Structure formats: C-alpha cells, structure tokens
Amino acid sequence: MKKALLILLLWHSAAWATTVRLETTLGNIDILMFENEAPGHVANFLNYVNDGDYDESIIHRSVPGFVIQGGGHYFNAQTGSLSNVPTDPAITNEPGVSNTRGTIAMAKVNNQPHSATSQFFFNLADNSNNLDNQNGGFTVFGEVVSGMDVVDLIASLQQFNFAYPVLNYVQNSNIQASNLIYVNKAFVLSETLSLNAALSGGWFNPATPGQGIYLEILPETGKMVMAWFAYDTELPQDQLDVILGDAGHRWFVADDFFDGNVFEGSIFLAQNGIFDANDAVSVTAVGTVRVEFESCSSALVTYEFTGTDISGSFPMSRLSTDNVALCETLSSMADPGVTP
Questions:
Q1: pTM, whole model, 2 decimals?
Q2: Is it true that domain 19-188 has CATH number 2.40.100.10?
C-alpha cells in the first residue's frame, strides 16, 4: 500500500501556493496547484509526485491543438515495451474550473466520471465547450505558470502510432528511448530562495542610507563573503580629520558557508590596512552574523558582538535591482524541491 496522501502547503510572503515542476526532455514545466478548487485532485497528484511515480515516465499521447497526456506509462529500453505507472484508488470528480488553454486536468475512463487515477493532460487550447461537460466534466486542478512553450514544443512533434510525441524518429523503425519525451523528475518547488551569484553586489539598510554591505555569493563552493561598512555606534568628533588610508580605518568581514537561503558566520574586525600598500591587516573575531534572504531583493541581517550589549537585526535591500530577474531565474533553476 502506498503511503497516505500528502498535501504540501507552502507559504511565501502573504501566501505561497504549491507549485509542481516537471523536468522533461525538452525543458521544465511549472504547474500552480488549485488547492481550494480541487483539493482531492491536488492531493492525489501530489501523492504521485512525492512517491516518485512520475519520474522517468513518458508523455504517451499528443493530439495537436487539443491535449498532451502523461502520467500513465514507463518505457523499457531493453524490451521496447511499456509498463504502467502504479496507481492509487480512483478519486471523486471535482469539476468546476474550465478546461482552458494552459490548464492541467486528470484523465478518466470513458463514461466513468469518478475514475481518475494517475494520468493527467495539458489543455493546448480552450477545450471548455467539450471537456467541461463530457464524462461528468474533467477536473482541472492546476495551470502552467512557466513552461507553456515546452508544452507547445512537445505538441508540435511528430507522433508515433498516432499517439506518442517523438524526436528524430525514422519511419518504420523500432522506437528507441531516445525518441521519447520523458518526465525525468517531478517535484514540489521549495518556497526557499536558492542563493546564487546574481545576489552578489551592494546591499543597504533602507533606514540608514549610506551604510551598506557588499556581498559575494560563490555557489560552486557554497560560500558567501560579506564586507560591512560604516558601523560606528556614535559619531566621531567634528574636528576629526578623515585621512585616506588612515590606520584607524576598519571594516567588518565574514566568510563562511551558506545553507539554503541562510548564511551564518563569524564577524571579523579588519583594521590597520594602508591604502595601496602591502602593510599587514589584522583580523580579529568579534561576533556572529546571520543573513536570511527572503527574496532576490530583500534579506534580514541579525548580529551579535561578543562581550558587548550590541546586538540586533535590520532589513537589507538591493542597491540596484538590475540582477533581480537573473537571480530569480537562477534560483528557480537550482530549486532542489521539497523533501516529502
């Protein structure tokens, strides 16, 4: 018996809706779940996703201008035969949302409204006049929010035996694994930002303009380098001269590993450096810092200095938003998914 149904409810900002990613041969398809409109179908779909039942399955049906369908079969490359995705008991129909272009619905047995199990299909066009009424209505339980171009690309391929979409297939030859379109992996996207190089650059506390932090994110090593400027707790004397390269100039640095969307490390006080000179810089551990990235443009910094009563937290924002879109793309690409 397969494990009990599991609904993963994720929250991001005000509310994060569950999103499932299908990593296919031709690219990713991200599907927003309609948890309120079709809770039983969402739970059913997520159960197959979390059990890994869709991993290495194939897209086995393509009807141009109508639907592409998957979730039903695996292909055995050694025998050239198909096997079935293991199924749970059929679920109760929940019609309501229309079968418009870009939506996903569960397939059913003819003339059996409550027969949906594992197979799903994407609507390539507005099929509401047909599918909203046929066989008790086909239940829509989500919609494509990214990757509809991948869906369309799959639908544009030639069909083998008037069904399977195939790549580089030679007519009258045996079908090969390399010809088929696979769902390599299906998983629920995480609400957590994946740190990436596009987060590097200048950041600042909006409440204290001019006082900032420079970050360098190194994804290949899993490390972050942080330099913290303008941190005096009180203003210096008015008559104090500022001399470029003065030995008293100092700054904080942190260099450590990050985990998920969180960086934690020791704060080091660096001082005694002389501008454009080889003089040794002294570095002393003085506290700890934690940076939790809420998005590609906001983070929360929490700090504590050892042996003092100086501690606290403040929000941090990007100095420039030029790389926010790139950051969001890289984070999505690196999303490890939610562990069931």
A1: 0.71
A2: yes
Burial 81-95 (b: 16+ CB within 10 A, else e): eeeebebeebbebbb
Compute the Cα dihedral for 70, 71, 77, 82 and give only its sign: negative
Q: What is the mean pLDDT of each run of 10 residues along the chain (340 residues)?
A: 31 57 95 97 97 97 97 94 96 98 97 97 97 97 96 95 89 91 94 89 84 90 87 60 57 89 91 72 88 92 90 91 88 73
SS3 string, the chain, reads CCCCCCCCCCCCCCCCCCEEEEEECCEEEEEEECCCCCHHHHHHHHHHHHCCCCCCEEEEEEECCCEEEEEEEEEECCCCEEEECCCCCCECCCCCCCCCCCEEEECCCCCCCCCECCCEEEECCCCHHHHCCHHHCCCEEEEEEECHHHHHHHHHCEEECCCEEECCCCCCCCCCHHHECEEEEEEECCCCCCCCHHHCEEEECCCCCCCEEEEEEECCCCEEEEEECCCCCCCCCCCCCCCCCCCCCEEEEEEEEEECCEEEEEEEEEECCCCCCCCCCEEEEEEEEEEEECCCCEEEEEEEECCCCCEEEEEEEECCCCCHHHHHHHHHHCCCCCCC
* Beta-carbon contacts of residue 24 (< 8 Å; ≥ 6 apart): 59, 150, 154, 181, 182, 183, 184
For Cα atoms 17, 22, 24, give the angle at the middle one, nearest 5 degrees: 160
Query: CA-to-CA distance for 15 and 324, rounded, in angstroms?
Result: 21
- In this structure, the number of other CB atoms found within 10 A of the CB of residue 150 comes to 20
What is the rounded distance in angstroms from the CA atom of residue 212 to the CA atom of residue 228?
6
284 phi and psi angles, rounded to 5 deg? -130, 135
Q: Is the dihedral of CA 327, 332, 335, 338 positive or negative?
A: positive
- Cβ contact 38:96 at 8 Å: yes
